[in-house]
Amino acid sequence: xxxxxxxxxxxxxxxxxxxxxxxxxxxxxxxxxxxxxxxxxxxxxxxxxxxxxxxxxxxxxxxxxxxxxxxxxxxxxxxxxxxxxxxxxxxxxxxxxxxxxxxxxxxxxxxxxxxxxxxxxxxxxxxxxxxxxxxxxxxxxxxxxxxxxxxxxxxx
Length: 156
Fold this sequence. Notes:
This protein has helices at 7-22, 27-36, 39-56, 83-99, 102-117, 123-131, 136-147. With 156 residues, the chain is an all-alpha fold. α1 crosses α2, α5 runs antiparallel to α6 and α5 runs parallel beside α7.
């Protein structure tokens, strides 16, 4: 590898090497270990904290926030959705569920689950499920059943 002359490149390589060491010589394993140990979450939180400190000290400029802000009391309209819209959408979903071929939906979701479990290309099975009028929630339930739900570890 060529000698790095740019300071930014050197810092980037140092960081990559740090992650690589967390994987004992495997960058991919270092990334996975870093996720499991909350390393990246802590790094992001620390960087955000340092940036906010720079903003508050005036070392970083955010136009309209800490520099060049106007003192206008503009009223920003807030979109309010009528509860009847939700009721209408729920009814439409119920109508679709009542009119679709339930057996075809079940077959398509079962095929999708089998594909996901066996790490096949899921796209054709997704298309089949959508064409059978499976809902997004039903499709996502398949993925949750196979892979579970990722919960980011709490920062320590």
